[in-house]
Amino acid sequence: MINSENPNNKNKCPDCEFELTVPSDTEKGEILSCPGCGLELEVKKTSDGGGCIDLQELTIEGEDWGE
């Protein structure tokens, strides 16, 4: 549940379960770093009123040079 009075939202790191404080103005596609384990996380979904509600591990796809 998202508290609209709180300017930050709480989310947990999917790897280490560290509780992250995510600013309410976070937008889809932003990259956040977990202070607990250093994992880079991508915001996959935000709520209508702002704030992150879904974080996933950042995956970087390699370039395909036609090989």
Concise synopsis of the structure shown:
The chain is mainly beta.
Set down the secondary structure blueprint.
Layout: E1 8-12, E2 19-23, E3 31-33, E4 40-46, E5 52-57
Antiparallel strand pairs: 1-2, 3-4, 4-5
Explain how this protein is built:
The chain is mostly beta strands and 67 residues long. Helix content is 0%, strand content 39%. It is built from no helices and five strands. The protein has strands at 8-12, 19-23, 31-33, 40-46, 52-57. The strands form two sheets. A three-stranded antiparallel β-sheet has the order 3-4-5, with no helix packed on it. Strand 3 and strand 4 form a beta hairpin. The model is unreliable at 1-6 (pLDDT under 50).
The number of distinct structural domains comes to: 1
Largest sheet, in brief, is: 3 strands, antiparallel
Give the CATH architecture. Answer: Single Sheet
- Spatial strand order of the main sheet: 3-4-5
The H/E string reads EEEEE
Structural class: mainly beta
CATH class: Mainly Beta
Mean pLDDT across the residues is: 78
CATH topology: Rubrerythrin, domain 2
Low-confidence stretches: 1-6
Percent of residues in beta strands? Answer: 35-45%
Integer-rounded radius of gyration? 14 Å
- Gross morphology: flat
Distance between the termini: 47 Å
**Helix-residue proportion:** under 10%
Instruction: Provide a count of the helices.
Output: 0
Number of strands: 5
* Multimerization status: single chain
